[in-house]
Amino acid sequence: MAERLQKVMAKAGVASRRKSEVIIASGRVSVNNKVVTELGTKVKVSDSVEVDGVPIGGKEKKVYFLFYKPRRIISSVADEKNRKTVVDFFEDIPERIYPVGRLDYDTSGLLLLTNDGDLDNRLTHPKYEVEKTYVAKVEGIPTNDELKQLRLGIKIHGKKTSPAKTNILETDPKKKTAVVQLTIHEGKNHEVKNMFKAINHPVKKLKRESYSFLNLRGLQSGEFRPLKKIEVERLYEITDKKS
Predict the structure, then answer these.
(1) Any idea what the CATH number is for the domain that residue 180 is in?
(2) What is the pLDDT of residues 144-174, one digit of tens each?
(3) Crossing angle, helix 117-124 and helix 17-25, to 10 degrees?
(4) What is the Rg, in whole angstroms, of the alpha carbon atoms belonging to the chain?
(5) Which CATH number is 77's domain given?
(6) What is this structure's pTM?
(7) Which H or E element spans position 240?
């Protein structure tokens, strides 16, 4: 039985289906020694599939890491400008891992990396509504009415955001800045920055502090730790409830 190439790649733990499509389109995948860029390509079990010259479908064990991403690091496996990426911190890890979702170049905080395509899809697909909490230093001091717009959902580029949870942690009237905690379950590009910009309080500094029940406790910027088996199981349980 033949299956779509991106589905086979996801099952093998290369990346989620969506990310696999990007990898295919970029010419990094070959089937039976021929480069394939067509997303509709179907492959059989007997076909030889390679990504960046490395065969997929081996017995590579699934691994999971929690990483404290520093600022000015790219959330990718490679960068066309040769800037440092998050996987550069994992050079001693033999498995081919990749980031779950992304954090902006100038955003720090909690980022998961894995080679488990199924879990990656669960954590990044909007239907699973996995909560992520950020702490943002913003210009000005938001009023309750302004934050209420975020709690109710605010229109950005013609689409309304899902309701967020907000909490002011600190204010500095002299510098006219505030530190605000924001919890959302969406993962669009620049989502948090765009939300604060929409209420006229641009973000000066941003950090992701937690991802579902996971946090950065015990880690310094640039450090990582493997997820415990019970943590991986709990992530699956949480997303199972949203299936």
Answers:
(1) 3.30.70.1560
(2) 999 999 999 999 988 999 999 999 999 999 9
(3) 110
(4) 20
(5) 3.30.70.580
(6) 0.78
(7) helix 229-240
Q: Which two tokens stand for residue 64?
A: 């999971």
Q: Which of 104, 106, 118, 172 is catalytic?
A: 104
DSSP strand pairing (224-226 vs 64-69): antiparallel
104 is catalytic: yes
| C-alpha to C-alpha distance for 22 and 19, rounded to whole angstroms | 5
Closest CA to 182 of 234, 231, 137: 137
Strand 98-99 versus strand 177-184 pairing type: unpaired
* Number of structural domains the chain divides into: 3
Domain that holds residue 118: 64-126+217-240
Domain boundary among 55, 74, 92: 55
CA distance 105 to 26: 22
201-238 tens-digit pLDDT:
999 999 999 999 999 999 999 999 999 999 999 999 99
**Greatest Cα pair distance in the chain:** 68
Neighbours of 37 (CB within 10 A): 11
Distance CA 64, CA 212 (A): 15
